[in-house]
């Protein structure tokens, strides 16, 4: 059945031995919220498809890691946040940026290396930031953003506010030493940090089974008493529900929380990855049976949303993406004067 | 109006490829995400997915065709089922391509030092801060941190044994009592993790001081220092600064062997996005650490364990501070310039005394800052003395002395009356045995000898 979680490929949350300390009242995802989630996921999907196309045309250079397939994770989690919260992730970051509300134009123009991009064309696909939207990158070194995310959470603790930091990383990064160091630090200092492992099953071409002795990554925080859950990351509703529990736990000052999102990327690791380490059937099965957009669409239709309503969203999203692609091609390359700026800040 | 499907580039270097197989035929409906064809590049066979919805009206390049150029049309799609207007991708020829650096791009500056830094007004004498008192470098460092922590609640100290233990080298003595455990935080022995954490906190506006028990352990964390702290301002187009200080003892200690005796000056001075400071005296330590804490950029602050207990006169003025990027002429002279930093400044001054006895007038420059280097002060000195000797405890290869000498080549070559020379630690891991350790480090007589050699005595 469309949208049903694949029990063969992912252990259900109940098997996770980690504790759920503060399972408070979970906010329900009503029709309007789901409709918004559908729209946000669709925007990421269409944006990434367009980015892939522009890459194919030679307009985007270097590395380009598409988020297609994983949209439910960032969209569901972002819906749990309030202004002042922070988000940080690795290099597969376009979806995170759009989810935080960053402008499609600025993201696409950064991909094409233009002055209109969020980093004035000096960062590229893996390095974009928006202090205003609470998005702290966009980091190219696998695992580095996990310590940095603990630091964002540290700043919340230091300032005594109740903001939380979402720290995303892949299952590939989950074996990095500094990730374990950060889990210890977060638990030790009760940092309001939600560690989100986006387990898309492959760290580049190496399957999680070939990289991790841990079979249940949601337990990776258990030596430090960090509660963890495995979540169907292909379903925005389950993501939102788990995210709400995690955020409530952190905001209440109970320390960090770990979510393992079982998800899947449809495209290769990067644009130049032929993805021969998995079968076409495996990809096809995920797309046909677990696609987050199809799941949400079916739910919405069952709740009385019409094809015409969805078509309106489709059109709106397409127009945003098309506009961003045009902007990203029209925006000029950064002037040569930009070469020597932003190396150091002026000392006051 | 149809949409052309173009031959995609599937790697950063691909210019053409073989259209291996069509998975759709004319008349087939496609939607975005459908695999429509397979393409062989020099590296791999890749799948091509449709981006637009519609029906394939015409296949322009039959399967099996070799050497199909990137961006040439391979098929046509009808406009699809309405919605947003058909998205005819612009041919790449019209779009500005990501190009290799243009010929007219400004050549990298000959000097690694930005012009504005080189132009700091060296001519200005150092400000007179009034009365002084004798204090150790250790006290000066602690007083600097305490002063800045009193002024700014966002400043805090983290590191191993900085709190309850009162500092592995007692630099943070008393700070826990005054500022409490929130602002003087003991860290577990996890340099990589807590350095990353501090950098993240700095991205969000806090001003951490990270103490490394010694800089040898900063190697555990160097990725966070270079890739995160130093580069993010640039990569964010100026959005995300990182006001942070990394400090601790650097260089040779005494009888602790190779893993605990190493100078990291040239490692960090190599990297744009960092400032690197190396104080010698108590006044240097206090004035420069205050400046480092106030600086909006990541600052590497290289102390020296052997200097911690040494006493110097230091201004008592509560506002005393020194500028980063400005060297100090510790002793004026006319015959040879001795350029040194950190503990070697003391040796340079001793050498100058010895040389004076032999009728050679040596000028001693205390660099204080290694990045940005105060090239102007060195150049002006060499223009006067026409001779240069550099001193450092670290290894010679690609060291600070090599950079100073190159700056002189670029800016004062015609003023040289002798080839610059350097006195450095030996190019080997630090030995433990007392006699060998002594041989591995620069010695006073070597400095005197080097100065005599460049003055042809």
Automatic annotation (TrEMBL), chain B:
Keywords: Lipoyl, Oxidoreductase, Pyruvate, Thiamine pyrophosphate. SMART domains: Transket_pyr. Gene3D superfamilies: 2.40.50.100, 3.40.50.920, 3.40.50.970. One of its GO terms (molecular function) is pyruvate dehydrogenase (acetyl-transferring) activity. Residues 84-95, 103-115 have a biased composition (Low complexity). GO terms for biological process: pyruvate decarboxylation to acetyl-CoA. Pfam families: Biotin_lipoyl, Transket_pyr, Transketolase_C. Its EC number is 1.2.4.1. It catalyses: N(6)-[(R)-lipoyl]-L-lysyl-[protein] + pyruvate + H(+) = N(6)-[(R)-S(8)-acetyldihydrolipoyl]-L-lysyl-[protein] + CO2. Residues 70-134 are annotated as: Disordered. Residues 2-78 form the Lipoyl-binding domain. Its cofactor is thiamine diphosphate; (R)-lipoate. Heterodimer of an alpha and a beta chain. The pyruvate dehydrogenase complex catalyzes the overall conversion of pyruvate to acetyl-CoA and CO2. This is Pyruvate dehydrogenase E1 component subunit beta.
């Amino acid at each position: 059945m469309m949208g049903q979680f694949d029990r063969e490929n992912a252990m259900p949350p109940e098997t996770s031995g980690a504790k759920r300390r503060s399972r408070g009242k979970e906010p329900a995802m009503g029709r309007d919220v789901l409709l918004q989630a559908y729209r946000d996921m669709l925007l990421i999907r269409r944006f990434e498809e367009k980015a892939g196309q522009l890459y194919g045309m030679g307009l985007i250079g270097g590395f380009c890691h598409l988020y297609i397939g994983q949209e439910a994770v960032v969209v569901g989690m972002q819906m749990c946040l309030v202004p002042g919260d922070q988000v940080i992730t690795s290099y597969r970051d376009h979806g995170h940026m759009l989810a935080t509300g960053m402008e499609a134009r600025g993201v696409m123009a950064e991909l094409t290396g233009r002055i209109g991009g969020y980093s004035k064309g000096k960062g590229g696909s893996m390095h974009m930031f928006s202090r205003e939207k609470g998005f702290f990158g966009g980091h190219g070194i696998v695992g580095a953003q996990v310590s940095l995310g603990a630091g964002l959470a540290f700043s919340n603790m230091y300032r005594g506010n109740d903001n939380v930091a979402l720290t995303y990383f892949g299952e590939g990064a989950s074996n990095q030493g500094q990730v374990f160091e950060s889990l210890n630090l977060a638990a030790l200092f009760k940092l309001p940090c939600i560690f989100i492992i986006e387990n898309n099953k492959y760290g580049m071409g190496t399957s999680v089974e070939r990289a991790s002795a841990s079979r249940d990554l949601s337990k990776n925080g258990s030596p430090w008493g960090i509660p963890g859950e495995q979540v169907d990351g292909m379903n925005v509703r389950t993501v939102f529900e788990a995210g709400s529990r995690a955020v409530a736990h952190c905001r209440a000052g109970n320390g960090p929380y770990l979510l393992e999102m079982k998800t899947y990327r449809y495209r290769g690791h990067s644009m130049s990855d032929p993805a021969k380490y998995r079968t076409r059937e495996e990809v096809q099965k995920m797309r046909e049976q677990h696609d987050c957009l199809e799941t949400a669409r079916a739910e919405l239709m069952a709740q009385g949303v019409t094809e015409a309503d969805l078509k309106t969203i489709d059109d709106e999203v397409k127009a945003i993406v098309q506009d961003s692609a045009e902007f990203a091609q029209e925006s000029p390359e950064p002037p040569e004067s930009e070469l020597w700026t932003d190396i150091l800040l002026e000392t006051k | 109006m149809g949409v052309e499907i173009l031959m995609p580039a599937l790697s950063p270097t691909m210019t053409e490829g073989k259209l291996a197989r069509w998975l759709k035929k004319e008349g087939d409906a496609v939607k975005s995400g459908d695999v429509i064809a397979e393409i062989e590049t020099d590296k791999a066979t890749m799948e091509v997915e449709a981006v637009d919805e519609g029906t394939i009206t015409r296949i322009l390049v039959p399967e099996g065709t070799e050497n199909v150029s990137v961006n040439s049309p391979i098929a046509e799609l009808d406009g699809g089922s309405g919605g947003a207007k058909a998205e005819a991708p612009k041919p790449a020829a019209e779009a500005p391509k990501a190009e290799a650096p243009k010929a007219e791009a400004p050549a990298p500056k000959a000097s690694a030092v930005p012009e504005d830094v080189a132009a700091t007004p060296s001519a200005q004498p150092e400000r007179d801060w009034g009365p002084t008192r004798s204090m150790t470098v250790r006290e000066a460092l602690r007083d600097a941190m305490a002063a800045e922590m009193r002024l700014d609640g966002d400043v805090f100290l983290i590191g191993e044994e900085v709190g309850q233990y009162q500092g592995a080298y007692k630099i943070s003595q008393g700070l826990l009592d005054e500022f409490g455990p929130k602002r003087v935080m003991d860290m577990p022995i996890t340099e990589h993790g807590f350095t990353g954490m501090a950098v993240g906190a700095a991205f969000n506006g806090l001003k951490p001081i990270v103490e490394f028990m010694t800089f040898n352990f900063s190697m555990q964390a160097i990725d966070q220092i270079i890739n995160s702290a130093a580069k993010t301002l640039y990569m964010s187009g100026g959005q995300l600064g990182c006001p942070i200080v990394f400090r601790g003892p650097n260089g040779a200690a005494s009888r602790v062997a190779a893993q605990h005796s190493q100078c990291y000056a040239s490692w960090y001075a190599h990297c744009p996005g960092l400032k690197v400071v190396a104080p010698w005296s108590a006044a240097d330590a206090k004035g420069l650490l205050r400046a480092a804490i106030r600086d909006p950029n990541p600052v590497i602050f290289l102390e020296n364990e052997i200097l911690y207990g040494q006493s110097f006169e230091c201004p008592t003025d509560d506002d005393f501070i020194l500028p980063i990027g400005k060297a100090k002429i510790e002793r004026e002279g006319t015959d040879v310039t001795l350029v040194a930093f950190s503990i070697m400044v003391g040796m340079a001054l001793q050498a100058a005394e010895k040389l004076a006895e032999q009728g050679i007038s040596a000028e001693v420059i205390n660099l204080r800052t290694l990045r940005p280097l105060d090239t102007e002060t060195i150049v002006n000195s060499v223009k006067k003395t026409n001779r240069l000797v550099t001193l450092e405890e670290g290894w010679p290869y690609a060291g600070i002395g090599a950079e100073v000498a190159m700056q002189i080549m670029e800016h004062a070559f015609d003023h040289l009356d002798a080839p610059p020379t350097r006195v450095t630690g030996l190019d080997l891991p630090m030995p433990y045995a007392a006699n060998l350790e002594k041989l591995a480090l620069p010695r006073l007589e070597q400095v005197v000898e080097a100065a005599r050699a460049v003055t042809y005595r």
